[in-house]
Amino acid sequence: MIPTPIAVMLTLIASAAAWADHGAGLREPGMNPVVAALVWAGAAFLVGMAVVAIVTVLSRRRQSQPDDD
């Protein structure tokens, strides 16, 4: 029987080839970094606006009713 550390090392070595980047059409190039930054900035802005709107609605005070004298 193979000792556990050796079995783990053999498994890692055998599976290393599966993680290789083969290029040539198997992987699409990513977005332009500037476009990605603008998209994430827009998403963060929308989330911030949603949080402000929710806090505003939840913290709104009700108008007091006039006293009936």
Description:
With 69 residues, the protein is an all-alpha fold. The chain has a domain at 31-61. The protein has two helices and no strands. The termini are far apart. The model has no long low-confidence stretch (mean pLDDT 79).
**Unreliable stretches covering 5 or more consecutive residues:** none
What is the alpha-carbon Rg in Å?
A: 29 Å
What is the arithmetic mean of pLDDT? 79
Structural class: mainly alpha
Strand composition percent: under 5%
Counted by DSSP, the helix tally is 2
Shape: elongated
**What is the CA-CA span between the terminal residues?**
95 Å
What are the salient characteristics of this protein?
single chain; 69 residues; mainly alpha; 2 helices; 57% helix; 0% strand
Quick summary:
With 69 residues, the protein is mostly helical. Helices cover 57% and strands 0% of the residues.
What's the structural blueprint in terms of helices and strands?
Layout: H1 4-16, H2 33-58
